[in-house]
Amino acid sequence: MTKRTTTTAGQPAPKSTKACLHIDLTKEEASRTNSEQSTSSKGILEMIKFLTERYRFRFNTVMKYTEYATMSSSSTYQPLDPRTQKRMTLEVQVAGIEVSIKDVRNFLESDCIYDYNPISEFLAKCDGSWDGHDYIADLAQTVPNNNPHWTSWFRTWFLAMVNSWLPNKKHTYGNSVVPLLISGQGYNKSTFCRRLLPDELEWGYSDNLTLSDKRQVYQAMSQQLLVNLDEFNQVSPKVQQGFLKNMLQLPTVKMKRPYGSHIETFPRLASFIATSNLEDILADPSGNRRFIAVRLTHPIRVNRMPNHRQLYAQALALLKCGERTWFDGYQTKLIMKNNQQFEVQMPVDHYFHNYFVPAKNEEEGKWLTVAEIFSQLRQEVGSIIKPNNLIGFGRKLGYIHGLKHKRSATGTKYLVKRV
Question: Are 359 and 366 in contact (CB under 8 A)?
């Protein structure tokens, strides 16, 4: 079977379907005489020759379906849907070749069709061509904001996104961090997100994911490259604290294909980005480390299209040099501190800061449990603070900067001072 050289992105370049089949046919003809060939096998061989002389076929290993194109040089590949497959069957039968639609389907769904990975194909064109300029920083700086760490954080996230596309890599975690762009309407947030992918990979962008449909989510994670959680403020606190937190760290997804008979494991390809028109949107303090939230000061500059070839060539070069694709403990603390300004604020949160501050030592303050602090606040402001806020309030206390805590027989205590 004729093969081309392996590409630098790690995926074997596709072999010619026609050449592959030509060799198989030659072997078949050499091993049998015409008189020995059954009518059925002869019809199948004629059908394969008929179709491959008129069409080019390839199996998209990302989308998990066969694609076809005519032999015209201007023809582009399209998914081979059931209607097209039936039309091809009629063409074969009208040509006098005695085969059934099942015979045609068996060929088009077999591994006689060569595997094609559109991601590896694109990355192979980029690999080794970086000119040394920092295109990732240029792209990050088109997003005006006051966060001094944004460019560095965006770079790490972008490298993690590209790293998750590389084949033959065993990932323990998926790209679990999500840039979150916050501003009013008309700041070009969606345009920026869409332009992160080049034209060759634009099929891998999605902005209409329904998080309540888990099957759709898992399919998108295995087949899409970038998912924009548009209008993130509409994601409920319950989803943020549960399904979304778990989903973001998955390295693989398990699901059953349509009409499949068993559950399969697929590598996760998708990274996530999000946009919002509201600022108080992060409902899970412990999960806030998974977001890089920035407030835009001006509209994103989209007057120039990114140089995608150099952008991804730089990413591949940095990954080869071993640049980190995750955030260390220090950076995670900075991210969490930054994200506190975007947390959903309950009345109890506001009142805590009105009546308490973190104490520096025991002479200055007093050790109190969550329930004791909560009780004192209720005495001050009354029933506006609901008892069902207690659990969420306790969780948030653990993330207040400078607030010391310790374990005790009655629960966690915090060193606070009354204002």
Answer: yes
Largest CA distance in the chain: 103
- Are 148 and 296 in a shared domain? yes
Co-location of 278 and 311 in the same domain:
yes
Which domain, by its residues, includes 406?
347-418
Are 99 and 211 in a shared domain? no
Taking the C-alpha atoms of residue 104 and residue 94, their distance in angstroms, rounded to an integer, is: 14
Residues 337, 353: one domain? no
- Asked if 217 and 306 sit in the same domain, the reply is yes
Which residues are bridge partners to 292 per DSSP?
179
23 and 137 share one domain: no
Residue 141 maps to a domain:
yes
Please give the chain's pLDDT, 419 residues, in tens.
333 444 444 444 444 454 454 445 555 554 554 544 566 788 999 999 999 999 999 999 998 899 999 998 888 999 999 999 999 999 999 999 999 999 999 999 999 999 999 999 999 999 999 999 999 999 999 999 999 999 999 999 999 999 999 987 676 778 999 999 999 999 999 999 999 999 999 999 999 888 888 888 998 999 999 999 999 988 887 888 788 888 888 888 888 776 667 888 888 999 999 999 998 888 876 678 899 999 999 999 999 999 999 999 999 999 999 999 999 999 999 998 899 889 876 666 667 778 888 888 888 888 988 888 888 888 887 766 666 666 667 777 776 777 888 888 888 888 988 88
Task: Tell me: do 181 and 324 sit in the same domain.
Answer: yes
Residue 29 tokens, joined = 């003809």
Residue 284 token pair = 């899970």
Helix, strand or coil, per DSSP, at residue 243: helix
Same structural domain, 136 and 193: yes
